[in-house]
Design a protein that fits this description.
Blueprint (H helix, E strand, L loop, with lengths): L1 E5 L6 H12 L3 E5 L16 E3 L10 H14 L4 E3 L2 H6 L2 H11 L6 E4 L2 H13 L4 E4 L10 E2 L6 H16 L3 E5 L7 E7 L2 E9 L13 E4 L6 H11 L3 E8 L5 E7 L5 H7 L3 H13 L1
Parallel strand pairs: 1-2, 1-3, 3-4
Antiparallel strand pairs: 5-8, 6-7, 6-8, 9-10, 9-12, 10-11, 12-13
Length: 289
């Protein structure tokens, strides 16, 4: 039995931990990157499971993304790919917003558009009501590029900022969301195969973004109050391994902000002591059985 780790970033600590854990259990593990494949001739990999833990379908050129998707499509013909290729292909904040809206799951008021006038109208309507607006890249992670539109009221200034932002961070797609007044923290639930294996409460005294990567802090969260919601979100997106971010609002409602297809879990492990890499290895091993 063997596992192929397909990633464009094999040096990430979480990837190394999973690989080492699988080897410790006697499995044959091989790591390959997109540039290790030359199509149309696929190598004989003899892999039963392919673990794809990196965000390689959302960075790089259009040609690179097409090449990587073709590789994944070939891999799924001979092995079980995690996360499923279809869920990775569709993964984005925009896709999450659409799924949650259809299911009636709690989510901030949101728009995704390539039309700068539509983006402006959405933002202006909220700003005029003295509400905050958050602008995000549709496929970004770790809080990078997430910003508020506070204080921008003049049409020319707002339009100019939106045009600059999409060139800098969003590659042509505006993803705007109503900012939800909250309790000063969010909760990340890590879901593996329809089970929440760990939770962390994240907060930041100096930034509205609670990501640890931008200076936030994390602590263990033992309350399972959001477990059912997190599992429902994972199921809605088709993700077998994901980090679901939930924001408790001041109005008492929980708001789903993100279902991360490639969740980092170093901070969660440090905060909780839960060996997430072992839980991932358990799941991959269950697929081999």
């Amino acid at each position: 039995m063997s596992v192929l780790i397909f990633t464009d970033n094999p040096g990430v600590q979480e990837v190394k931990l999973v690989a080492e854990e699988l080897r410790r259990r006697g499995l044959k593990v091989r790591a390959m990157a997109p540039w290790d494949f030359s199509l149309p001739n696929m190598p004989n990999l003899d892999a039963d499971v392919v673990y794809a833990p990196s965000n390689m379908l959302h960075r790089g050129s259009t040609y690179e993304l097409t090449h990587r998707l073709l590789i994944l499509r070939e891999l799924e013909k001979v092995a079980t790919v995690i996360n499923p290729v279809e869920s990775m292909l569709q993964y984005s904040k925009e896709q999450l917003s659409m799924r949650l809206a259809k299911l009636g799951l709690p989510h901030p008021s949101t728009i995704a558009t390539e039309n700068v006038e539509e983006a402006y109208a959405f933002a202006y309507a909220l700003l005029e009501k003295e509400k905050e607006v958050v602008l995000k890249p549709t496929c970004g992670a770790r809080g990078v590029g997430v910003t508020k539109l506070s204080g921008i009221r003049r049409r020319d200034d707002l339009l100019q900022f939106l045009v600059w932002y999409t060139r800098e961070h969003a590659q042509g797609v505006y993803y705007l969301q109503e900012y939800i007044p909250n309790l000063g923290y969010d909760v990340r639930c890590l879901v593996i195969d329809d089970n929440v294996v760990g939770r962390e409460r994240r907060f930041n005294q100096t930034d509205f973004r609670y990501n640890v990567a931008v200076g936030g802090s994390a602590e263990a969260c033992t309350d399972p109050i959001y477990d059912d919601l997190s599992i429902a979100v994972a199921d809605a997106t088709g993700l077998k391994i994901c980090g679901v971010d939930i924001l408790p609002g001041e109005d008492g409602k929980p708001y789903v902000l993100e279902a991360n297809c490639y969740p980092g879990y170093k901070a969660l492990m440090e905060a909780t002591g839960i060996p997430v890499h072992e839980r991932i290895a358990d799941y991959l091993l269950s697929l081999l059985r």
